[in-house]
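Posted in: Structural Biology > Protein-Ligand Complexes

Title: Requesting predicted complex, pyridoxal-5'-phosphate in pocket

I'd be grateful if someone could produce the 3D structure tokens for the following input. Sequence and ligand are given below.
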Amino acid sequence: MTEIKKTCKLENVGYDIRGPIAEEAARMRAEGIDIISLNTGNPANFGFYAPKAVEDALIANIKGSEAYSDSAGIPEAIEAIRAYSARKGILELSDRDIYTGNGVSELINIALQALIDNGDEILIPTPDYPLWSSVATLCGGKVIHYICDEANGWLPDTDDIKRKVGPRTKAIVIINPNNPTGALYPKDALLDILEIARRNKLVVFSDEIYDRLVMDGGKHFASAALAPDLFTVTFNGLSKSHMVAGFRCGWMCLSGDRARAADYIEGIRMLASMRLCANVPAQSIIRAALDDPWDAAPLLAPGGRIYEQRECIFNAVADIPGLSAVKPKAAFYLFPKIDVEKYHILDDERFVLDFLHEHHVLMTHGRGFNWPYADHFRIVYLPVAEELRRIAEKMRAFLRDYRQ
Ligand code: PLP
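-- Reply #1 --
Done. Output follows.
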């Protein structure tokens, strides 16, 4: 029998948040063990539901959504995205600058496939949302990770970016607000990164899917608004802010110097039309969602679920000997640091697996986010505070005698 093998293109793609640990959790579940999944940002798994207006829009538009749409998207969605982008300071978008997608994930695939040739370099943060690195690698690109500095609130280290940019660097990815750190980048930090992009003629990919999930009165700045001259692709979607990850609803906007990118844009159009179109029922909710884009705001204010859950997990983790974390300002992730000497930890994946086996809680190890050291892990703090408190107690008990 001839073995069926995966393509060599998949060799170095990385097998991040859905890798062996998630498979082990699935195996345990199949044995009847109840597992708490804190490994993906999937709000609907934790009692967060789509706003009623969004659900109503989906139901009202099911009839009439049967056909393929234009490959860029339905006109109402394009118009709503344009209006939302303008409110964020991304101006003068034409119909040809906006594409809807089956989640931001699909659009990351399209945007990178159209740009990256074998050996092209792309700057991606570490820690990252690992899809970016996986897709860039699959496209034949060489991922160059730039450091986000924990000692500086996880902000990108611009000196590191300057050191790493080279003649083959084509693009830089900015993830703001950030997954997995929860950092929200101030204007000055963004302007510094954008200046490097400007000087080196880099395409800017700005992943802003958490822009409506900001706490503590913080303000999100759209990269494209701060640098209207730079060719920028801004990614956004409803999975997180409107709790509809399963609907697969995202978009991207092309802004800045489109003339310089005419050939690249042609590639994007080609790829967008090859997948025919994004899910049309999901597109039909975009207008209703963006009519009230700050729907999640009450959850993010004191007394709101996400705010209180952050307070709870941040304080509980800070109270566990050998763990520390930067307080997240946005999204719903905490990326704690482990004192690896204290616990003699050599392998963060094993740490997470051991915790899964002993306490049936599934998390993601830091290297799953292309973080180079075995000293972090990520907690998704979507469960209610009481549950998070119980999980933190389990972690405290686990670490009491844990040594690798
Ligand atoms: N970008 C970031 C930073 C994310 O954290 C995620 C999902 O967790 C995505 C993109 C993908 O989102 P979507 O559900 O729109 O594909």
